[in-house]
Amino acid sequence: MRIRTTVAAALLLAATATACTGGGVTTSGAAASRPSADPKPLALGSGRHWKDIDGDGSHISATTFAVAYTQPAKGVHLPTNLADFPDSEWAVLEVRTCVDAGSTNVIVAQSPWTLRLRDGTEVKPLGLKGYGVPAPTYPVSAGTVRPGDCLRGKITFGMAKGSRPDRIVYDVRRRPAVTWTVPRS
User: Fold this and answer.
1) Which domain holds residue 101?
2) pTM of the predicted structure, to 2 decimals
């Protein structure tokens, strides 16, 4: 579990440092002001369009979707000690990003996606790909989506048995966080 946590933290740091979160965020030494979260959660399957300026000053824009959520998920073959919970089960979130034709390339990653439980607990993705997780896997870090293209993939989470998130959150610095409501079953 420590290795997964360390690897996930390193990937999150790399994603933030290289703007892998689809926003090409630039930092100028001063803390950037953060827009408030979108007030109304979206229904699962719908998307939110966003625009930003990449680190080189170019325009980027896309629509990001939370397509489907499955818990408990079939097809996950991982050691249970990879989850942060002692009595765990696997959940899979399927997401999609479609880049506008007038945009430059958008870099995507798993790190902006989290699950939030009613009690405020936030569950981060495992940050794994390959054998043991359902395919196609959404890029762990630095997946490139070209203008006019879409990228769809699955993100695996370890959840405590008996718990279920009420929200899916896509949170990229300098943009309002987007939330989707998770159906009860």
Assistant:
1) 2-26+49-174
2) 0.79
